[in-house]
Design a protein that fits this description.
8-stranded mixed beta sheet; 10% helix
């Protein structure tokens, strides 16, 4: 019996290790943002092999479709910048973060809601302080019905919008 168990243990340890777990996405939800300011949200994304892509999906609360920005690796985490909401055009932004590993396995966070508040009320707003990044945001549509531009509730200056191509 001991010899059979030992042989089984040797056989199991000789099996190749497969990188088949989806990526892990850790994010501390941001409860509020300030109207008129571009926002940067970050998440820690890790994988047993390699992270291929990380994206930040967002929409004005109540809208039908999400748009997304690609997140860039910033040393310890992946970060993405989205346009701010215009003053008086929305009271919240819904968002989630999704990552895909090099084996095409996706993982996403829950959907979170950031309430839009006046400056001074939101204690730790996720404001993008780099003016160059805030002025060069590339947003991608997720549905043809979104048309050729981002929802007018968002600040559009410095934003390039990539619509879904018709086939």
């Amino acid at each position: 019996m001991r010899i059979a168990a030992a042989l089984l243990l040797v056989a199991l340890t000789a099996l190749p290790v497969r990188a088949d777990d989806p990526p892990q996405v850790e994010h501390q939800p941001v409860p509020c943002a300030i109207a008129g300011k571009a926002l940067t949200l970050c998440a820690t994304v890790s994988d047993d092999s390699a992270v291929a892509k990380s994206r930040l999906y967002f929409r004005r609360s109540g809208e039908d479709f999400y748009s997304f920005v690609d997140m860039e690796f910033a040393g310890l985490s992946y970060c993405g910048t989205i346009p701010g909401i215009r003053e008086g055009k929305g009271n919240a932004i819904e968002y989630y973060i999704q990552a895909v590993d090099d084996q095409y396995q996706p993982q996403r966070t829950s959907t979170y809601q950031m309430n839009i508040q006046p400056e001074g009320v939101c204690e730790f707003p996720p404001i993008q302080k780099d003016a160059a990044k805030a002025a060069s945001i590339r947003v991608y549509a997720t549905n043809k019905k979104q048309g050729k531009k981002l929802d007018d509730a968002f600040i559009l200056s410095g934003v390039s919008f990539v619509p879904v191509l018709s086939k």
